[in-house]
Amino acid sequence: LPRTTQLFYRYSLMDHFLKYLFIICNLVFTVMGLVVLGLGMWGLISKESFAQEKISSIGTDPMLIVMSLGFVLTMLCLSGCVGALRENCFLLKLFSFAVLTLIAVQVLLGILAYSMQGQIGGYLRSGMLAAMVRYQDDLDLRFITDEIQTNLQCCGADNYRDWEVNIYYNCSAPGVLACGVPATCCVDPLENGTVWNSQCGVGALMLDEFSAQSVIFLGGCLGGISRWIELHQTQIGIVSIVVVGVQILTLFVSTRFILMTFLVRNVPLTFIVSLQFMYTISLFVSTYIHPALSCCYGVAKDA
Length: 303
What we know:
CATH topology of the domain at 121-229: Cd81 Antigen, Extracellular Domain, Chain: A
Strand content: under 5%
Order of helices and strands: HHHHHEEHHHH
CATH architecture of the domain at 121-229: Orthogonal Bundle
């Protein structure tokens, strides 16, 4: 029969609720993706990364990663939103595949992190020492290092003397920073409580630990990171479970939309009614007819 002469399967109230909830959630994440994308572009532009003399090193800029994540998040959520709104199976399948891939990657990363937890400390130490070496030359690494040292109240990787790896803070350096540490290592980097004193860590490496403890933080940031993780492991676990749970729920809803879209477009209502009728008949037979026949057969056999 022509499509126009058939009654097809229709969405239920729950289907409509899930559809618009799915669209709203994807719109929210699309806006978040645009914000992240904008922050990444702002970071690149503010550092003049697109200038001719800097364009060759843009591939190693951390802000490029931020911009890429924002772009991917925006396109992914937008495809899910448009796919649900327009009932486009291709976009919904693309969205479902991307979310499934993301879940698989996260699970693999979790397994990998658990199996290599003894080596993670070594990787963090190597990464932080590398950032300290390039502290004066890379604005992004300087910002990240300063934020870690300020928030965790630490200095260096294992201790404050790690700053000797930097050619500007090494005691053999000719400059004013020789035998010093960054101001973010200082216990009180504010002079008179108001003015930022960028020279508060100068000469700290020449002091013994007893004298230095009143000027700078002696402990390294690796220990601070470990303590922070231990203190917040419950919150980290809850956030991780919620994030993965939302992704699994999103995958379930998008998969349901694909099935519902197929039913709405391809399965006549008469077919659904026929299935329900056949199920009702089979249930009636198994509940009433079969026991009655069994009883009659038993009576006849006894007679």
